[in-house]
Design a protein that fits this description.
- By secondary structure, the chain is α/β, with parallel strands linked by helices.
- About 40% of the residues lie in helices and about 15% in strands.
- It is globular, with a radius of gyration of 22 Å.
- The structure holds FE3-S4 cluster (F3S).
- The site of FE3-S4 cluster (F3S) has 12 residues, from β9 and α16.
Length: about 425
């Protein structure tokens, strides 16, 4: 048995000693070692058993993952609750690929996709619709409550659960999310502790209009990195209640803080649940200060590099929805596209446009007349992960436009503000004329 520093219960020691077999002993060992590295004093029970896994794609170099999954399946080990997982990397129906792209996806990049999905199903995947990073939305239903302890890993989902739902989860890595969901235990450190949820940054928003969620999140992420920010001045623009519009805003804001920095939790004064309950007492004594005005947001926006090979050319593809769009966001974008094209007396979108959302939201939307109108414009609604689609040498030739700061950060997609992206889609930009 390993040497460990944390205090374990008799039951946990027995599991380490092999009470439930070698595989469970190994899983427990990994959780304990992980906890020891971060100074955890003990393991605590997961209270929301629906896990969320970050690894959704069957890339052959993930061989150790497949081997581990195989061991779990052979030992008949499953997660306690059913779990959701990040979006799939391919959707040939809605994100068409040329023969070369298909060849690379099918034979090289994602050749293990079906095999891996079968493994996920055997270990506890919820269902075929469970592939989304916005598992916490009503339509998907993997919704932790205030104070719940989770074993999740996807950074955009973790920051949402911590900040908007008031649940407690560290930014775990892939496989640890699964191991915690199997054992129903996670090491207690960081964002699981009251102390770790205190803000070390006081961020004051002083803009003259509602800030673009993705740029504000990016600015804060790059400044505070992995620290916890407490944001003043945003309730002026968002109000004091979490409604559909606010959910979309905070989802995008949080994903940008988590990807442009490494934020796992933020508090919004007068709005997010812990800030409402505990207010200023969440601020650490020596909290640093960051003031954000219009000029600061513009500085951050202007700092984004354009990484396309042909920088001066027009975009040839747009991805909207990373993280996946909420139903309200999907409706909003669809109205803007359909009505905007009518106004411009155009029948079709002026560049290939893909809106991404969870399979459950997509199915709900597909029943509406608005969906049928949107599809007539040539725009598509997919549940793909845009990053998985674009982050390879083959699809890198596309000049992808996006209003997602996460996609911009991890790929060569170019960032556009929502209004600029809409102009491209509607042909309102000067290159389109
Ligand atoms: Fe979701 Fe993929 Fe973006 S997991 S946040 S759509 S990179």
């Amino acid at each position: 048995m390993i040497n460990y520093k944390m205090t374990l219960t008799d039951d946990e020691v027995a599991i380490l000693n092999g009470r439930y077999g070698e595989v469970k002993a190994k899983i427990m060992e990994t959780l304990v070692m992980f906890g020891d590295i971060f100074g955890a004093k003990r393991l605590v029970p997961v209270t929301h058993h629906e896990g969320h896994l970050v690894t959704s794609f069957g890339i052959p170099f993930l061989k150790p993952t497949f081997t581990t999954m195989d061991k779990l399946i052979k030992a008949n080990i499953q997660t306690i609750g059913k779990f959701t997982v990040d979006p799939r990397p391919i959707d040939y129906e809605n994100v068409k690929c040329n023969p070369l792209e298909k060849l690379v996806f099918n034979k090289i990049l994602y050749s293990k996709q079906a095999f891996y999905e079968d493994q996920l199903m055997k270990v506890g995947l919820k269902d075929n619709n469970a592939f989304t990073c916005t598992c916490y939305l009503d339509e998907v239903g993997n919704q932790p409550k205030y104070g719940d302890i989770l074993s999740w890993a996807e950074s955009s989902a973790v920051v949402y659960a911590n900040s908007v739902l008031g649940a407690r989860c560290n930014r775990n890595s892939g496989m640890l999310d699964l191991f915690g969901s199997i054992m129903g235990k996670v090491p207690e450190f960081g964002l699981l502790l009251d102390e770790g949820r205190k803000a070390t940054w006081r961020v004051i928003v002083k803009t003259t209009k509602k800030p673009e969620a993705q740029i504000l999140g990016s600015a804060i992420g790059m400044k505070v990195m992995e620290d916890v920010p407490y944001v003043y001045g945003l309730d002026k623009w968002l109000g004091n209640e979490i409604n559909d519009e606010v959910i979309g805003y905070l989802k995008d804001f949080g994903a940008a803080t988590a990807s442009n920095g490494a934020v796992g939790l933020y508090h919004i004064d007068g709005l997010t649940p812990e800030a409402k309950k505990l207010g200023d007492s969440l601020l650490s004594e020596n909290a640093k200060e960051y003031i954000i005005d219009d000029a600061e947001l513009e500085r951050v926006y202007k700092s984004y590099p354009i990484m396309w090979k042909k920088k001066d050319k027009r975009a040839d593809m747009a991805f909207i929805g990373c993280p996946h769009l909420t139903y309200t966001q999907l409706e909003d974008w669809s109205y803007k596209i359909v009505d905007g094209l009518k106004k411009n007396k155009l029948a079709k979108v002026q560049l290939r446009t893909i809106l991404t959302t969870s399979p459950d939201v997509r199915m709900k939307f597909m029943k509406t007349p608005l969906y049928r109108e949107l599809i007539k414009t040539g725009a598509k609604v997919s549940s793909i992960c845009p990053l998985m689609y674009t982050n390879n040498p083959i699809t890198k030739i596309h000049r992808i436009a996006t209003s997602s700061n996460k996609l911009r950060t991890y790929s060569i997609a170019r960032y556009y503000k929502d209004s600029e992206l809409l102009d491209l889609i509607l042909g309102n930009d000067k290159e389109a004329k």
